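Z., the sequence and structure:
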Amino acid sequence: MKQKIGTKLTIYITLVVIITFSISLAVSQFFLPKYYLHQLNQKVTNAFSVYQEFEDKSLVEDQFDVTILSVSLEDNINVLNENLKQQLAREHIALNKFWVSEEVLQKVNEDKIVGKVYNQGKQKSSFIAHYSKDDNQLIMIGASMANFIEIANFINRFNIFFLIVSILLIIIITALLSRKLTRPLNELKKVAKEIGELDFKQAEIRTGDEIEDLARSINKMSKALEKAQQDLSKRNIDLKQFMIGLTHELKTPLALVRVYSSGIEDGMDDGTYLATINKQVDRMEKIIIDMLYFAKTEENDSNKTTFDLIMLIHEILNNYRHIQGEKQIFFKTEVTEYILTAEQDKIHFIFENMISNAVKYASGNEIHIYFDEDSIFEISNDTTLTDISRIWQPFYVGESSRDKNFSGTGLGLATVKSLAEQLGYSVQARLSNGKINFKIGFVNPTLR
């Protein structure tokens, strides 16, 4: 069973609090009493050292908050203890358990400093005393000590109560925080689910933190996936149209080959049947070659060279000198040289197709080619076409061009567009007042 973030957050924070309080309780119960005794013992020791150096009772008592007493070592042990109790009483220190033993006196007479802790039982306190010898005097420096174990137990009971209250507050606060935290996460979950169902929604989240950054990333991904889906759908439609066009283009020559082959078998050949068959085979071969080249344009096979585009256009135009009597080609350029670094064979294919297309399908006698200083190539001619919305589609051939004298397959302009876009150029076709105009932009992303 999956745990929700709010439950996990509550459990983790509660565990941290419990562990912290447990460590605190253990320290209060076992470590602090010993540390407190050590510190008090150190204070009395330091007081002893200062007293031995300066022998100023008032100074040492004020500075270290201790009590300094002295009695004669020549008295017997009972008198000695009675004298010490009387002096302690005058200092307002009442001890129900206090006695200097023979063992302590023996060590003191050996010039040793002896420390002793007297637990006062029901008084819930203790008295720590250090003894030493000064001539025939027993010097005692002592300090009262609260029963720290009892104090620690009280503190621990309070801490346990505080722990319970803290856990209740943690549950309430984390419930509120987790609701605030999980609300945008639930929205992201919903958006992600919709994206998975190809419904590319956008998440509207304004939290000012990493969740908002995540929402932006998901929105960006959603837009990218939507565009990819649209492109894929368009490609599927294009592929379907491509297959329909290919079937149509191959169907006619295949039908003619079958008819004329049957005519030869039946002895009906007048001497032209075989030539007709060969012509149709050549047409199918050209369709297949053009189709393979069109498919190859999808590959980004970079073999760039540097060349003069104006010179390349002149070389292509020289191939059409033989038609100058039938159609006039006018080429005007605003630049004498245009150095381009690109794949020259693809550029050659683009211009060769654009010019040959104009020569084949121009309804008038003039073809105008223009290259301006803004790196835009333009070619225009008269046409009988009334609709060019599908002119870039594979196997699209205008009705006026479906003439047996033309060998067009309808793949030329589709290949031109594919190559130009692959090279990063923009292409455009316009129809106005019986003229068709093609533009290719080599620099500007948007044609004028």
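The longest helix spans residues 210-265. The radius of gyration is 52 Å.

Let me know what you think.
H.
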